Each structure stands twice: as structure tokens, then as C-alpha cells.
Amino acid sequence: MTQQSTSAVAQRYTNPLQYADGVAHTAPDPFVLEYLGEYWCYSSCADGVQVSRSADLVHWDRLGTCYTEAGRKEYWAPSVILIDGTLYMYVSDMPEDSDNHHEQIMRVATADRPEGPFECVTTLFDGFAIDSQVVRGADGTMYLLYADNQRAGVSLDRPGTSVMIDRLDTPTSRVGNPRPLILPTRDEEIFARNRFGDGRDWHTIEGATLFTHRDQAYITYSGNSFTNETYFVGYAQAALSGDTPLDELDWRKHAGYGTFDPLIHRRGHVEGTGHNSIIKAPNGVDDWIIYHARERIPELSGDETERRQMCIDPIDYMEGELRTVAPTRDPQWAPAKPDVEDMFGGDDRDLHDDGNWRVLSGMATVSGHQLETSLHGVFRAILREERPWNTYLASFWAKASTADAGGRFGFAVAYKDERNHAELVWDAGDRRFRLLGAVDGVHREFASSQREMPYLDPAQWHRWAVTRTFGTCELRVDDMPIIRADIPLDGGAIGLFSQYTSTRFAAMRVTDHADLWGERLADIGRELRIVDGALSFDERGARVWKDRPVRCEREFLPPSAVQSTTGVRYVFDVAFDRADGTLEIMLPNATVTADAEHVGVTGDEGSAMPAAVERTDNPAEARRDRYGRILCTIIIETQGGTTSIRTREVIWTFDNVRTDNERSVAENRLTCTLNGASLTGYCRTSINH
């Protein structure tokens, strides 16, 4: 697909990240936002908020200051959210003639472009408040996460700064009913002993970032002082429950079963790790943590010269918890690209004569990295990429100028022919999203959004994310859930759609991806062919039927995965129903075995593997689900001629014995056997670098 980027596309990266001008720029408190297929990083600075831009999260261009105010200094921890065409920045600063950091006041500034300039529109607090993040709940409610001293500042137990949450009734005004989210509980969170000379040890919890995965919500935070070498990233977790608001969830700090178990902490010569944001890789699937760190230089100990630089590393979800290899300093695989990407580069490009698209009807032009459809007629174009497209995650940006007669535009979820197709569309007539289409020539509406959306302006850019998992599709717009519905079509092509509407599309990306958990596990038979035994399904997962072992298999590598930069990742989440329950995963070049106490990997001839490892030194510390079952997550990833197998305790990495294109059909197999164990989750994602 045609791509447009600001820099070279990376296969590997090394922390700290590099800039195009060759300068080792600092980037404290990095907050990263995606806008029209590019990444924008906003970071703290004494003189004003700094902004940088990247196409791939690895190579960055420093653009300079995007926000400053006369008479102010020390611009701390900016965060930005896009709401109906306006970018809102939440950032704290202080008077330039003050040396008291507790005079940091949170401002709201706006811009219509990510590079700014941002202009201050209001002050959000009367007193000290820092480290913002604004998120939306499933119903569109806006929440502000921040840190202040109001809740824990006078605590007799552990006084200090804590993470709070309040609702916003508009992007520039608070409801004014704050609640505590994360409070100090450990000595490792102490900012300074006897900080104010009154005998109290001051604690600090700050830098909160909220995100979700499956049925769990997470908040990462930073503890103690950013000037300390022991500054760390921890996290809290809550189960998402129906319509329960984010500020009413039961948040619990990850405590490592009584031990200090931070997500990111100093390692080797890397220290001061903290204040992160979370962003999706270009493939739209993988979560990456963006954080700052600095090199440990003993002779500069106590020197407050700014040295914090931006770093990135991937996040794994294992046994219901977060894991990461961060902080890294060795070369790592870069964030994955999608299978298909069109940034609509090349002015005057003719889609009718384009090797990537097949235009079925209508007219469109490409200019300024956007595809614009004609107001006259029905535009429908599908990708020429030949694959079934039964499972995928697609994302793109869209906006439209609707006429007096209304307008419809959106995404072709499945197109087989003119008699069998389905489209997700925005319908200007009643301001709803709809899933429309035809089966055997009979046109029908499959589903619609449950409510009108008067706050959504279709004339402004919005990010659509469409997930198809076999017969089910989901739509999220600006990361809010809109529609989940069944479609009675198997396979089909995917593409873009506009009906008598002048629509602009940008940054389209598609990744082959299947994530099965909860009730979606009922589709596991379409991913893993059951060879022996049978599975039953309930709230505990895909369980072996009548206590008989179940053997499943599938093709390990897709036929397209013959290049050194392509591959696939499998995630198996298992719960052991019996004390002697086992899991076995046979790959073309290795076998993984796991039970409640051990995980082992053995290789075929020519592959040297370590011996089996203990899953935990203390069986009482094993991760368990609400039914008391011991959990185990196995992540298998093959790319670039190597295979890695990851568990919570250890990572095995080894060269593939044979190159992908030398494997016979019989050899290219993944076989999974469950005995006294249940599959609670399964995920497959194609990998491109």
C-alpha cells in the first residue's frame, strides 16, 4: 500500500529514542496522541510544552514549543484529547517569579492542529493540581484524572500527593465532585523523609494513565520523586462491570502478593523511570508504554540538570496482570505495522487505475494524504488484497460535508457482491451509526447505535476502529463503543463507502487479528480445529468435555509469512481445572508444556532449550482466577527467523530450525492439547515490520 511517513520505517529500535536532527532531546512526562495516522508527543519543559512528531513511534522530529504563556514557567505533564475537531491540552504551570512548585495550576488550552500553537482558554483549578489525563467512558462521560494534595495531604498515616478523578461537564469545566483513585500505601512511594521539617515523610503518587484491555481497566502511575533514581511505574486494576462508571470501579493497586513489584523500575544504568502514557502501535492492536528515563551517571548524582529522555517498550497482558520488558537498552523489535496501510499519498492519484483498490462505483480523488469522494453518486471501493478477511482490526479517519438531503458514509465490513454486503455507516438523517447491507439481494438493517449522538460533528475528523471476529463486528469511534452486531456473511472484501456525500478518508490500516475471550470463545473452533475430544463453553471458558483431553490444531504460519520481517503471535490464556491439569503446545520446532507449577520448552533436533523452570518459588503466590484456578499465559511469537516463547517468569528465544518457506504443509502445524485445563482466552495477530 502507498505510505507517507515523516521518517524511515523501523524494524528495530533502541532506547532512548532518536530524533531526526541528531540531538538527544529530553522529553519528560511524554504523552503520545495519534492523529491522522501520525504520532504526536507532548512533553514537559521549563519554557513551554514541547511537541514532536513520528510516523512509527521510533523516529521523531522535534518541532519545538507548542504552548507557552507570558509570566509563567515550568510547564508540567501535558495531555491532549481530540473532541470534535478541537484539541484540548491540560497542562500545569506556575508564576515565573515563584520557586514554590505547589503553585502549579492546571490550565486548559486549545488548538485546531496537533502542532499548535495552543492558546489558554481557562484555569481548571484554584490550587495545586498536576499530571492530567482526560478519558471518555463507554457512555461518552468525560473523566479527568489528576494528582493533588487534597485527599492525602493531611493524612496521619501516609501524607502526600495522590491520584484523583473528577467528571467534566464540558472539556473546560469540572463537575467538582472529586474522588480518590490511588493513595500512598508503601515506603517506596516516599518523595522525601521529613520533607517539611515537621517529622512527616511525604509520599507521592502521580502521573496516572487509564486504559482498558478485554474486561479489565488499568491505571499506571508513578511513585516517589522524579528526581530520585528509584522513581518507578506501578499500576492499579479494576474489573469492568456492565455500565458501572469509571469513577465507581473497585480499583486495587497491584501489590505483588505483599512484595514491591513495580511495572517499571531502575535497571542497570537506567534510572528515574516514570510518568508514562499508553498508545497503540501502527497495527492498531499492540499496546506500548511511553515513559521517560535517564542514564545513571554517578558523578551527576544530585544534579538536577534535565536528562529525562523518551523510551518505549511493549505491554503484555499475562495471567490478568501487566508485564513489560522495560526498561530496555538493547535493540528490540519496533512497534508492528499493519498488514495493509494506505496513507493516501501522491496527489492526483487515480484509484480507478490503482493496484491496491478496486473501485466498484462512484468517483474519488486523492490529494493532501486524503481520499475525497464525490457528492454525486454512490462511491464504493474495496481492497484488492486477496484473503478471506474473517478476522481483522481496521482503522481509518473520516469526516464529511453533508448536504440538505442528508448523507451516509462509512466502511464496507464485508463485500462479496452487489447482492451480499454489509456496511457500517454514519447516517446524518437521524444522527446514528447503522450496520446496513444485503443478503441474497434483500436489503436490511442489521443493527444501529442505541442512542442519537448530537455531540458528534461529522464535519470534523473522527477515528473509526472496526473489529471483525468471524460473524461479529464491532465499531468504536474515538475509542467509544458504538455498535456490536452479528453479520450473516462469511468472508468478503473490505473497503470504503460514501453515498451522495462528500467524504474525506485518511490513514487507513488493517491488521489480521482475532481476540477470543468471554462469549467469543464459542468461535474457537474456527481458529483451532478440534481433532480429538470436545469443548464446552460457560463463564469459566472453553472447557474440556467430560474430563477427556482435547487436541486442537491449526496452520502455524500463514502462507504470506515467508519474509524475514513478517510473522505471527499467539497468546494462550489457560486455567488449570485440576491439580494435575496440563497444557501442551507443539510447534514446528519446539514443544511447550505447562502445569500448575512448571513451564518447560523442548526443541527438535538442533535446537538447544533450557530445562523446565519453576513457575513460582511459592505456590501460594500463583495467580488465580475468582474460581481459585491457577492461571498460565503462554505467548508465542515468530518473526525475523526467530521464535520467542514468553511466560510471566521467563522468555525463551531461539532461531527457527528451518526457514518458513521450507516447511511442508504437515510441518507447518500448531497443536494444542488441554487435559484438565480450560482455555480462558486466545489471541492471534499477524506481525509486520
Automatic annotation (TrEMBL):
The record marks 131 as: Important for catalytic activity, responsible for pKa modulation of the active site Glu and correct orientation of both the proton donor and substrate. Keywords: Glycosidase, Hydrolase, Signal. The active site is at residues 29, 206. GO terms for molecular function: hydrolase activity, hydrolyzing O-glycosyl compounds. It holds the Pfam family Glyco_hydro_43. GO terms for biological process: carbohydrate metabolic process. Belongs to the glycosyl hydrolase 43 family. This is Beta-xylosidase. It comes from Bifidobacterium ramosum.
